[in-house]
Known about the structure:
By secondary structure, the protein is mainly alpha-helical. It is 70% helix and 0% strand.
Amino acid sequence: IHNVVATLPIYHISEDAVAACLSRYEITSEEAKPRLLNIYSQVLDHFIKDLLISDDEIEQLRHLATIFKLTADEVCQINAEIVYPHYEKAVSQALRDRQLSDDESTALDSLCTKLRIPESVANEMYKKYAVPIYNEAMSDALADEMLTQEEEAELQHVAKALKLTEGLDDKLTGILERARRLWRIAPGAITE
């Protein structure tokens, strides 16, 4: 099957041809599944070398998944293993200076589109790298358990630089509010 995929256009390979090949070698579909998944993975890996999955490549992959009888879950798992790391690497590189420029944001959006990564998945991958940077800034600001106006402004600046627009969860909001109150009542602090 591997040789057929390597030598013929994918559209020319039929489900019957795959079944005939398996039958010729007396291999069941279950026995062949790991190898078929591997072939699909290799084709996908080849297609994303240019960091772009074209419409034609998507159709070829769909055809291959159909003739190999791959499930949607299996295809999603392979995408997560092969495609997603390319986007994660780009996110990591974009955030190495602990901020995200407009150009970097545009480049990440473009890469997400080219690799056909769902926006929700891309957002989760971005948060995986951006949120720890923000949390580190928050930990630094709250080291003394108080939050000054300057520290709060710095946290807002960090969130803006990272393009983190979602609000804080209730627990973090409570921690910040407590730290603000402690700063207001601290000896020598200017209260509002």
